[in-house]
Amino acid sequence: MPDTLSVLCVHGIGHGDADTQLAPAWTEAITAGIRRWDPRMAVTIDFLRYDDLFDHAPLNPVVYAEALARMLASGVVHGVGDLAAGTRGLFDVPEEIRWTAGMIAQWGSEDGLRAALRRRLLQALAKGGHDLVCAHSLGSLICYDTFRRDPAAVADTVFVSLGSQIGNPFVRDAFAGRIEPLGARMWYHLYNRDDHVFTARIRLDVPTFTEVLTEFDKPNDPLNHDPILYFSHPNTQERMWPAIAGGRPARALARTASTMRSLAARPERRALLIGINAYPDPSARLEGCVNDVFLVSSVLQECGFAPEDIRVVLDDRATTANILERLHWLLDDVQDGAERVLFYSGHGAQLPTYDFRGEVDHLDECLVPWDFDWSPAHAIRDKQFVEFYSQLPYRSRFVAVFDCCHSGGMSRDGALRVRGLDPPDDIRHRALAWNAALGMWQDRALVPPNRSLARSRAGDVYLGARRASYRIGRGVALRGLPNRSYDHERRELGHHGPYLPLILEACREDELSYEYRDGATSYGAFTYCLAKVLRQARTEGRNPSFVTLARLVEARLRELDYRQTPCLTGPRRVIGQPIPWTRPPRRRRRTT
């Protein structure tokens, strides 16, 4: 690094240009962070001014309401969801929340505004020759939007995002559903999970990106969005400022990170298997789910999975928290070429869910953990599941297999057990309306918010059965900001959109998933047939594609007189390929 460090600061939401305290406070915090590690370093700081570009369209209550509604629908379960939960409506939430939602919506919906912001940022960078760019909140969106389109602008620069909404599902849709690495020498993302202004983590597994957890709780400030507390956090002081002040080249940092990854020797294959029989409610208990898990584990081990790379979670240990923790084990730090398998055997459900106005307006598809209580806090919802996989590397392979249904009906069809829950009457009431003319209760027109993958990436996705548009795992479809073209934005940003998994389900939306009794032993009918087909293929030396696998399993189910049709969804290039599990994994070379 040179003797003088040139910094460009980009403020966040609000009237940063007019705030006379902003520039001195930022200058002091950044200079202190650098000089703590290099007291002789001269620090020059410039500030990007851009508030005037927003002045042509003042925010109003309509913009507030529409933006906040889209943000809540996008799956923001922390932050504003917590703040709005105890309020009486939209205008009872803090002013800065409404201001933030409206300003971000304005940024995301106006092509001309975004282009003008990019031009102004590029002009400032061209003048200053800056070594470091620090961007807070909305400023980080402006920077990311610019740097993805013009990588050369940040090629010799360290980028710091703090209090950032870049990874927020609502905002990520403005980037065509995916966040990609930048061309910066290094990108530090300072993240505080208690920051309630739509901030979010970013999942990138590249050596030039580091997320620094900077948790703080500012007294008498429910938002916890203060940039100075990000800059001065102990983790920032220990992990970011010394690297910037010491001038360790990005290539050296990359080599160190690459060596650490090699030494970790992460396995190419992992599988998480979940099975729940013993639900607390005796009337909801199943028989074959734990057997399903052991059956699938045995098949995967026959197909080359090492026992230590398979984790199971069963019955009362399969709580919401435990399942989410194990999903992190399965889907964090996935490399190109890695193979991941998720298997779930248990109940599925549809959860009528309130919007920010306190009105039931949609259904959430969900898996049913052991501690399920018909609340979002104790369910594995579609939007949560999508968050785990949407940023996976394109050349990785993730297959999710669900032996459950969302149709309910525990006592239907005589003695056959169904893997779906009927809601209790108070939950069911949310989805009903009284028809006074008929004198009868009838279902309200509620649908899940997740559109089919086929609709979000037409031509690249195959649906193995009709009427499979609203099942768990489809939530990757873009809700999007208005006036944005998904395909245009994807091409502009140079990526293929969110990662698409391969999802194999036991039945269609209009069908039920049943249990099967093999002698005295219970299994899921779908899982039992799946294992039989895979084992027969191995015995005969065949390696069918996923499409063929689904059809063979369907044929087996028909032979056993089960009216359920396996449903297959995924990228065309994947579902038509041979199943990879029948060959041993490549050996990893360990670095010594």
Can you walk me through this structure?
This protein has about 600 residues and is α/β, with parallel strands linked by helices. The chain has helices at about 20-35, 60-75, 80-85, 95-110, 110-130, 140-150, 170, 225-230, 235-240, 240-245, 250-265, 290-300, 320-330, 380-390, 425-430, 455, 485-495, 525-540, 545-560, 570-575; strands at about 5-10, 40-50, 130-135, 160, 185-190, 210-215, 270-275, 310-315, 340-345, 350-355, 360-365, 380, 395-405, 430-435, 440-445, 460-465, 500-505, 515-520, 520-525, 565-570. The protein has two domains: about 5-60 and about 110-260, Rossmann fold (3-Layer(aba) Sandwich); about 265-350 and about 370-420 and about 450-580, Rossmann fold. It has 20 helices and 20 strands. The strands form five sheets. It has a seven-stranded mixed β-sheet, sandwiched between helices. It has a six-stranded parallel β-sheet with strand order 2-1-3-4-5-6, sandwiched between helices. The relative contact order is 0.10.
Key traits:
7-stranded mixed beta sheet; 20 helices; disordered C terminus; 592 residues; Rossmann fold; alpha/beta; single chain
